[in-house]
Amino acid sequence: MAYPTLTDKPGALETAAAIRAGELSPREAVGHAIARIEKLDAKVNAVVVCDFDRAREAASALDGQAPREDQPLFGVPMTIKESFDIAGLPSSWGHERYAGNIASRDAEVVQRLKRAGALFLGKTNIPPDLADWQSNNPVYGRTSNPHDPARSPGGSSGGAAAAVASGMVPCEFGSDIGGSIRVPAHFCGVWGHKASWGLISLRGHYHPSLSSSPGFSGAHDGPLGVVGPLARNGEDLEALVRITTERPLASRCKPLRECRMLLLLDHPASPVDVSVRAPIEAAAKELEQAGIRLDRSSELVPDLARQHGDYMKTLNIAMARGAASPDGKRASASDWFALLDAQAVNAAAWNAVFERYDFVLAPPAPTLAFSHRDEAYFQGAETIDGTSRRAADGLAWAGLATFPNLPATVLPVGESAGLPCGMQVIGPAWGDLDCIAAARGIGQILHG
User: Fold this and answer.
1) What distance in Å separates the CA atoms of residue 395 and residue 183, rounded to the nearest whole number?
2) Does 156 qualify as catalytic in the annotation?
3) Domain ranges (residues) in the chain
4) Which of 81, 123, 152, 166 is catalytic?
5) What pTM, to 2 d.p., does this model score?
6) What distance in Å separates the CA atoms of residue 280 and residue 363, rounded to the nearest whole number?
């Protein structure tokens, strides 16, 4: 089963292997990546903060050295989402008033990736406050989908997914609270992983308005939000998770053909367009033909309408950091604790689902990559199978894993009219490596 690809450039681990074998030097790897960015990015506008000189210097310092065992990314060039701090570079979160906000230290994820040997070439584009499925802001302009420049690459990690999909860099790191890793991976035809909540540190990934708060170190893991990798294959996703995790992870995944899966294609809050439904249905059919047990409904699934309502309330409070909503109302402490209770009940219900099923399969979003818009996507409407719907309803598919704090891996499974289509593989809490392993197995069945 095919999906559109734009590059045959090697992934992160493949690049590191070439460097270890002496086929490529770190400086050459960095030089090739910079050349690709300079050639391709005029049409895409993915890498909006360039740090090429420091990357060349860091690469030169590695030339001639032997990689250590704890450096699986030795000499591998990469970029990272603009919202992560890198010392000496701006973290504006898409706001002109923060364009001069220069980080004094690296985010925890950046530190871990550097210790593993990665070399950072710069930072990739985002929407303001990371709050859109487009990546367009007054500081850096608009990022385009490399499959179709008239369409969005997704958001908020849209620049990250576009850079990986186009072949500029082999891997990236993004963040996700409303599908911000999973939707760009889906729109751009790459792999992405939303980690279990609390698995990977958010330190150094915080809004610049907080940097002036006395004693604030960026160490707070806000509700729902997580960070995670994007790549062009599952092997790289696994390596990036292992490098950045803050807790021991073990894979308990049994052979894929021994797994029982649940496919969810219907949600009371958000129908799925045929352009997404058809490739996922075709993928499900191939999995069944390969011997995978696949159910399409279960009485164990929690009340999805209620889950979506609670998720949206929690998301809006978290994104506004408790500020009043447009109607002037502010959530009380009682409101917040009631949502935390609802989240715990919802997580328990999903635990029961995973006592029967190994994984849940679902769309990352109700549509494929949409055409650029001047307004914020969630403030407008979306057409699904000819019917106009509130665009914000599509967040239901992101909230499926976000509200109960579950891991989810997106892999490309097919295409419609030349645009890639992805699928979420959702697993139980802390089953991150299992989700990635299952996605890899699914990819082997679908694509060989």
Assistant:
1) 10
2) yes
3) 12-244, 258-447
4) 81
5) 0.97
6) 8
